[in-house]
Amino acid sequence: QNHSYVLKQSLNFFQSDFAGRIAQRIMQTGNSLRDSAVQAVDALWHVLIYAITSLVLFAEADWRLMLPLLAWIICYIAALFYFVPRVKERSVISSDARSKLMGRIVDGYTNIATLKLFAHTDYEQQYAREAISEQTEKTQLASRVITSMDVVITTLNGLLVVGTTGLALWLWSQSLITVGAIALTTGLVIRIVNMSGWIMWVVNGIFENIGMVQDGLQTIAQPVTVTDKPNAPALKVSRGAVRFDDVDFHYGKAANVIEGLNLDIRPGEKIGLIGPSGAGKSTLVNLLLRLYDVQGGRILIDGQNIAEVSQASLRAQIGMITQDTSLLHRSIRDNLLYGRPEASEVALHEAVRRARADEFIPQLSDAQGRTGFDAHVGERGVKLSGGQRQRIAIARVLLKNAPILIMDEATSALDSEVEAAIQESLETLMQGKTVIAIAHRLSTIARMDRLVVLDKGRIVESGSHSELLEQQGLYARLWHHQTGGFVGVD
């Protein structure tokens, strides 16, 4: 359930923390909560039984034998009230340091290629050591409190044994109790002392677990920012018209990235989004996918407000090919079928052929001896080259066959020969679809029906390639500043 809840969080949620830290908190919270409940019930049951039984037996022997036990119970409870909150407080801090350490370690493993590329093994070791030192320091603080608690409880236990035994001997010397009462009293006191140590560790364990739960709740209890309305209907796309209506958006407290943007994309129209870095191109696409909610205005698809339909149905109608293709650490087949699990084997192979991925898939193998479509690609697809990953991504979108297509530098990782071969398949894919393409290499989108130029979150130019060149505006400057096919910077 925790995992299911976290998967519903917005993209920003995952971009703001270590993946390993989030995973650590999710994994520890459920177990800690269960252990706390079991330990609490167990400890409470034993305390009630022993306390009531001992007081009754002491009272039957001589009511005065109850006095040391009552005094001990009061002091024991006072000690727990003093130390337990401090144990919990330090446990929260220690748990946070532990999840931080896990986050740093996993971050290094996830980016192992970058680590080796820059020969930063020593740097990453130091980066992890800092987190280890912090965790050790926080754990030692918690250990000091636990040790102090142990000393106090041990002292109280010693006083209880000495006080009760001494009082029993004195009462016996006064002929007020029998030798049997002394044996009973001493045996019960020793049993209570042993049980008190166990209860102390149980209570300590409970609050250590509560500390872990509280740390985990920092992740789990965060409200989901992008949610479906109750009984949200499914998006129905018949034409593929897209409209951005006076859209505003900003990240956090920063100034608007998108401000008062209006854009109508006709059914089946193919537009190219162009602009310098930070102009808002990718943000616009993320808003269309509803990875973020707009702060103002609305986005419509075939007249339906995307904020009022289910997210699953919205994304089912959109296919996207990104520049930075990330694959799941599963088989080639699983990755290809991710957008359309029910696809037939014939459709799967046809998509692979059209994406020219059939040139390398049969030769793939992994360490477990799996080959071809069954070979696993490694975390984020690291076993494949950038071009191979992108061809898998293109095949996946070809197979999904959604009515709206987004291409963000879709062929940037391909060599010229493969790009030329795939271009025909992409043009076939785009037929009858509404297409939004982002590219820094302007030659790849110059043939789009319309080019929309963004700058600082606003549309500054719109028209065909030739029309924009005639305007001698931002697009013309970007076009003329290209060197080797890439956008120059003013």
Structural class: alpha/beta
Radius of gyration: 33 Å
Strand arrangement in the largest pleated sheet: 6-7-8-3-9-10
Unreliable spans = 483-490
Give the CATH architecture of the largest domain: 3-Layer(aba) Sandwich
Written as H for each helix and E for each strand, in order along the chain, the element string is: HHHHHHHEEEHEEHEHHHEHEEEHH
CATH topology of the largest domain: Rossmann fold
The CATH class label of the largest domain is Alpha Beta
Mean pLDDT: 78
- What is the count of β-strands? 10
Instruction: Give the terminus-to-terminus CA distance.
Output: 51 Å
Largest sheet: 6 strands, mixed
In words, what does this structure look like?
The protein is of the alpha/beta class and about 500 residues long. The protein has two domains: about 1-220, ABC transporter type 1, transmembrane domain (ABC transporter transmembrane region fold); about 240-480, Rossmann fold. It contains 15 helices and ten strands. It has helices at about 1-5, 10-15, 20-60, 65-110, 110-115, 120-175, 180-220, 280-290, 310-315, 330-335, 345-355, 385-400, 415-430, 465-470, 475-480, and strands at about 240-250, 260-265, 270-275, 295-300, 305, 320, 405-410, 435-440, 450-455, 460-465. The strands form two sheets. The protein has a six-stranded mixed β-sheet with strand order 6-7-8-3-9-10, with helices on both faces. A four-stranded antiparallel β-sheet has the order 2-1-4-5, with helices on one face. Strand 4 (about 295-300) and strand 5 (about 305) form a beta hairpin. Helix 11 crosses helix 12 (about 385-400). The chain starts with a helix and ends in a 9-residue tail after the last helix. Mean pLDDT is about 80; it is low at about 485-490.
